[in-house]
Amino acid sequence: MKYAKMLGLLAIAVAASMALVGTASATITSPPGTVYNGHFEMTSTNTELDGTVDIKCKHVIITGDIVNGSTTAAVTTLDFKECGPDTYLTTRGGYLRLDSNGTAYLEDAEFTVLMHRTVFGFPVTTHCEYFTQVSPGTDIGTLTEGVSPPQVHLIGINLAKTPTDSACGENSQWTGTFTFTTPATAIVVH
Length: 190
Known about the structure:
The chain is mainly β. It has one helix and 16 strands.
């Protein structure tokens, strides 16, 4: 079934516009029948990165622009806010892509987390770098059908890490829910 309200998720992948081989072609329309051409934004509350040390952020924003209904969009903002004592630095926003089945992929994104803790009374900063695959990207979840506004649920997405501090742990799973705020509704036409 086609994913109604595939909203900005498809847009998220703005710039990489269908550059991937082997993916079905689709177009985003909003309102129905009108090719969407514009800004997309999705936000998340209470996103968590579970690893050796758990990192929680109260607000994450992903924005970009959808060009001519494309299902791949360049991410212009990947911003982590209200993360307690921790600091996020985005090196590369990458691309957001939605395939014809409603699966969302975050491609070629990279961010650093500086975890600030106190150990035996001394301040300690742990430096961890995470990234998503270039092609086909890292599967971050599937667009939930029939929900307005559309949502993508991150259910234990394993993020790859660059070798940095051993305190970053071996496995880090990203969980949370992203809700599209712009466009509020969208349809993917296959």
